[in-house]
Design brief:
By secondary structure, the protein is of the alpha+beta class. The protein has helices spanning about 5-15, 65-80, 100-115, 165-175, 185-195, 200-205, 220-230, 245-250, 255-260, 280-285; strands at about 25, 35, 45-50, 85-95, 120-125, 130-140, 155-160, 210-215, 235, 270-275, 290-300, 305. It folds into two domains: about 5-140, 2-Layer Sandwich (60s Ribosomal Protein L30, Chain: A); about 155-305, Phosphoribosyl-aminoimidazole Synthetase, Chain A, domain 2, CATH 3.90.650.10. It contains ten helices and twelve strands. α2 (about 65-80) runs parallel beside α3 (about 100-115) and α4 (about 165-175) packs across α5 (about 185-195).
Amino acid sequence: MTLPTSEFSLIDRYFADHAPNRHDVALGIGDDCALLIPPVGQQLAVTLDTLVADVHFFAAADPEGIGHKALAVNLSDLAAMGATPAWATLALTLPKVDEVWLAAFCRGLFALADQHGVQLVGGDTTHGPVTVITLQAHGFVPPDLALRRDGAKPGDGVYVTGTLGDAGLALAAALGKATIAVGQHSYVQARLERPEPRLAEGVALRAIASAAIDISDGLAQDLGHILERSQVGAQVEVERLPLSPAFNASLDRETALVTALSSGDDYELCFTVPPERVARLETVAAAWECRCTRIGVIEAEPGLRLFRADGYAFRLERQGYDHFG
């Protein structure tokens, strides 16, 4: 195997010439800066995430899945703002140059980029003690239509896309803390390693939702960010949480509910909708490829209150993931 002899040959070999070539990129990879042409009448949405080996992903995990996820978690942030993705930059720290790993990583990264019309326009590669992936994504959203966390009002319904807890189940199984039901491993593992950002749903919610966030650190914690920024509270009925058949088949009911509320890496959308826009939401959501489930209601009293169907409170000791918790 012939290894690249420098940082620059590594960039040329794996990153420089990959399609798509967007018309709004005047100059991409290969210079000190990229030259980009934001469209007239659009706001630029910018997000950034860092993934560290054996913190955010297992170092021995499928590198194609790692490449997919590195971009997906950023696209999920854009989806939560109702933005359409456009560009990305990548900073990659590697303990060594492994061409097999890099080729697979790039396959996963660029397959998702191609799917959503994202062009990699710059970045950096460095040597370091562990693999660290920092990716920044850029997208566009019309003025005054960006979804934010601070718009929820009392009476708004609380909704989520897709199903919750699958990624948390996969992580628990990998750590020996849970067992995935027979025949369900591939589905559950894909939910952890290859999340699908809800970009089309985010765009569709621009004129419908009053607030939104993507669920990266657990539903209870992330919904809490909406409540804090909007200065409201919420009541959530835990039996309404959307759970996949694979998830239900793998966990007892109490463990399932706790996992769905507090585990991270779902990358679904949590959003609020005023009563007068619910019919519009139902019409739009009928065409989505994922589920859309109402789980609760926004209230004036601050705080998140979890209830069972019989009205009794549901106790949750840990609301979600915290890097420094």
